[in-house]
Amino acid sequence: SDYAFSHFYNHSQPAYDPDYSDVCDFEDGSCNWQQLAGDHADWVRRSGASGPPHPDTAPLTDHTTYTAGGHYYWLPFSASDPSGHRAKVASPMFPAGRGACIQLWYYMHGGGVGTLNVYGPGGQETPLLSRTGNHGPMWRFAQASLGNHGQPYQIVVEGVKGGPGQDGDMAFDDVQVTERPCPPPGSCDFESSLCDWSNLGNGGGGVDRGHWLRDRGASPYPSSGGPNKDHTTNSDQVVASLRGDLVEPSTGGHCLTFWYHMYGHNVGMLQVYINDRKISGEGNGVLLWSKEGNQGQKWLEASVSVARSDAF
Predict the structure, then answer these.
(1) Integer Cα distance of 46 and 6 in angstroms
(2) Chain centroid, CA 133 distance in Å
(3) For residues 70 and 186, which has the higher predicted lDDT (pLDDT)?
(4) Looking at 17-26, 148-157, 174-183, which range is the least confident one?
(5) In whole angstroms, what is the distance from residue 157 CA to residue 118 CA?
(6) How far apart are CA 79 and CA 239, in angstroms?
(7) pLDDT tens across 199-231, in order?
(8) Cβ pair 6, 53 in contact under 8 A
(9) Is the pLDDT of residue 52 over 80?
(10) Residue 37 · residue 121 · CB < 8 Å
(11) What percent of the chain is modeled with pLDDT above 70?
């Protein structure tokens, strides 16, 4: 049995290029990212399992696996660090003309957090994207166009200390340079990446036994059947959760539109929830939409209205 969904739109849409996509999740090393000289501190590749010096502000998991054993680049700021202290780390060199969009996940939590800047082909004068202040204990998505570039370039990530006398932590993970343009905010067709969607895994709520996979072409189970149990757990009930980035409230509300595919005798249930910014814990939130059982060998469109006065 097979589930699939495609083309999520939050009111508002391109980019899996089989020929090229450069991505690093830092699980197997630094991907040749290097610390830059002339700053005040260093970014550190670490995992949540190594024990944060700031237990109230440091990430407890990475973004890739949502487990304590997953890795990311991390920058701690202590209360004694002066405002304006900087740390920079740079990617390997990209060839001229390579890449159209930079995507990454970042974490900024604590009163001492200042600014996260990401620089690209234009050098370190004007950032491609910038985030400032406390964004809460969660991984957030960011992307920016790389523009036209006729010279080799690096991606540089810079962290800047904020207010004095307070702790704060920054981190980044899952950096990807795609050959397709950045998709519009609130839209994803999954052609080059998961955009701002994340597999929660066991580290992101404790309920998942599977993962959503970005795929193309025909299903590996083209018949109406497929296996009636998963191989890992020998269970006939496999739960996989995919969560979008935080959505800010709108006076006119939001409309979530997506295409889904549910085919096979053993297909179960597809559900859409609002999780009220909860990163982990019991339950999935408020159920908005649900579909159960075999819907045939075809893609179907669904729309859900969302009226919220707070972020979700």
Answers:
(1) 33
(2) 19
(3) 70
(4) 17-26
(5) 5
(6) 42
(7) 765 444 444 445 566 656 555 554 444 334 433
(8) no
(9) no
(10) no
(11) 69
Place of tokens 């307070």: 166
Cα separation values, 5 from 116, 136, 145, 258, Å: 33, 29, 26, 7
Inter-residue contact 146 to 96 (CB < 8 Å): no
DSSP states of 182-223 as a string? Answer: PPPTTEE--SSS-TTEEE-TGGGTS--S-------SS-S--S
Name residue, tokens 């939590």.
109
Q: Look up the pTM and report it.
A: 0.71
Q: Specify the DSSP class assigned to residue 153.
A: B
Is 19 buried (19+), middle (13-18) or exposed (0-12) by CB count in 10 A?
Answer: exposed
Which of 140, 142, 108 has its CA nearest to residue 127? 142
Confidence band, pLDDT 50/70/90 cuts, at residue 43:
very high
Residue entry with tokens 């497929």: 226
Q: Which amino acid is at 220?
A: P
Asked if residues 189 and 4 have their Cβ atoms less than 8 Å apart, the reply is no
SS3 202: helix
Bridge partners (DSSP) of residue 94 are 153
Measure CA of the first residue to CA of the last residue in the chain; give whole Å. 31
Cβ burial 29-67 (10 Å sphere, 16+ → b, else e): ebbebeebeebebebeebbbeeebebeebbbbbbbbbbb
